[in-house]
What does this fold into?
Amino acid sequence: MPAWGLAAVAEGSRSRSVHAGKGRSEADDVTLLQTIVGARGAGRDQLAAVLREGRLLHPDGNPEQSARRHGWSRGQIKRLRAFCQLARRCLIPPDSAAPAVTSPKEALLQFQDLRREPRESFAVLYLNARNQPLGREVVAVGGLNIAQLRPREVFAPALTLGAAAVVLAHNHPSGDPTPSPEDLAVTRHLLEAGELLGVEVLDHLVLSADRFRSIREAGGL
It folds into this structure.
């Protein structure tokens, strides 16, 4: 199983996304966003501002924050959040041409939505033998005692997808991404469970709104 850094990410994936966006106007994007979230209380200028400021679907974007600043309703923000989560999942290509994930920072791009979650959430990125993404699942949300997370919740999708490796991630809504003793303990527990199942745990990322920690880089794996 390849470890972090042994494969290169294809620059072509970035250029493909750039070319895909050409020929599409902001007016078209505003119309689509208006259809998704509803027009009540949100004019086209306001929708356009959220698109620009929030950088919708960009890994470092924060459209929810922009939407709140412009006075969107809770229902509109909920629909926006659901759309962003669905779209980001669809951006993980399941085919053999998917770019490899070769470092904690690259894996972090697949977990950006967790950074804005107000509740603690635990997610898993499933990779094939070439470190290419097969899918991602949120396996626990809210009121989470990470020490009680069971291996079957993490590895059942891995076996279904035929994954060779996983990257674990969860958020600290407190804002401090320093791994707790419980975080380290459950990481070691899942590492042992993965070894029994033939699924390698490549890393466990702990996220906050503006920082993250890699337990592997910290020597916890």
Summary: Confidence is low (pLDDT under 50) at residues 5-23. The beta strands are 121-127, 133-141, 165-171, 200-207, 212-214.
